[in-house]
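HUMAN: Would you supply a protein with fold tokens?

ASSISTANT:
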Amino acid sequence: MEENTNYPYQMFAELISYDVNPEKLDSALTPNQVTNYFKTIENEKINVEKKINEIIYKIKKKDHVSSTVKKLHDGLVVLIDKTYVNTTHVDAGKTNTRAVNEKLLEVKQELISKIKNDFPHYVGENVRIPVTELIEIRDDLQRKIPVLEKKLSEAKNDERLCEIVISIFKIFIRKIDDKAPIYEKELNYHLRVAKNIEFDSDYVAIDATCPSLHELLIHWNLNSVGCVKYFSAGMQQRIDALTTLEGKLEFVEANLKKLHSIPQIEERYDERYEGFKEHFDGILVREKALLERKIAGFKPISETVKDSSSKLKVMVMMSIDQISLVLRAMTMIGVIKAKSLSIVYKMLMPFLSTEAKENLSWVSAKNKSYTGEERDKRITIEILESIKQGVEAL
């Protein structure tokens, strides 16, 4: 088999997959075979160190060096994870492969340490974590969960919110058990939150009348689905409980101001979604605009349209999410006729703008029409109800 010069771990990979894989062996390794494998592994370690240096030093572009170093690091992590499976296999003892796999683990850990020491500026801060490290962290977190639950409960926090916080650690532990890839940022995030709970965060609350955990969740940027739903429901209940539009607006403005004053860490729980503050800032800004329109009433276009760089644009006092829902609904019921939904957005969106954005993307608007949030649907319905009242008054 021809050796891949950009993959220096080929011999290690073959050892792990075949030669010392308990699932592939029909008979146990002899003591002589074990001794020979130890010697082979040590010799190959020296060869791999040379190959790594050759690969990296022949690269001329700095950004290519960084990506290559990370690939070399994470490639070792993948092999460590596979070796760990061999080590813990039910037949590892019977096939006499455990000692050889443990030797492989040791050597690959040494190679990872060498890469980190030799190329610290290129490894970066978000490398993949070997399962051997994660197992220890998992066991430590499992021991700490009762302590964390007690700390949150003693602080008189809402029971449901405590469950949401603890759930992030339980989900993290399940990911480790499932051997899912886990990177340094995700690991550090969970360890930071756990430490803040266990030893009391040094964060100073902005509002003493509000449960401290509420502000901490914003500070931690804990944007889990459960956490966002909890806050959305709680905020909506408090707004609905107020009897006047002025009271609702005052509440929204106060919470918007408070949200802006709470410092938020850069890392967020779920990198797939926007940050906690960014999400709720958008919700509160839209709610504020809606309440202000209700209080002022719908004014003539000449009084509401701001200066625009394009004279062919009409400002709509709705968000792009709400506009997209209206256009899709009108197309669905046949009020707007076109060969396709795409044509509707493509023809109309260039002539519309919102308070927040002048140039609207028709592609974005079309996509948003399929993922409308319940809050945007509710606001859109309220606007349509106001339009109905306006038509009736004509």
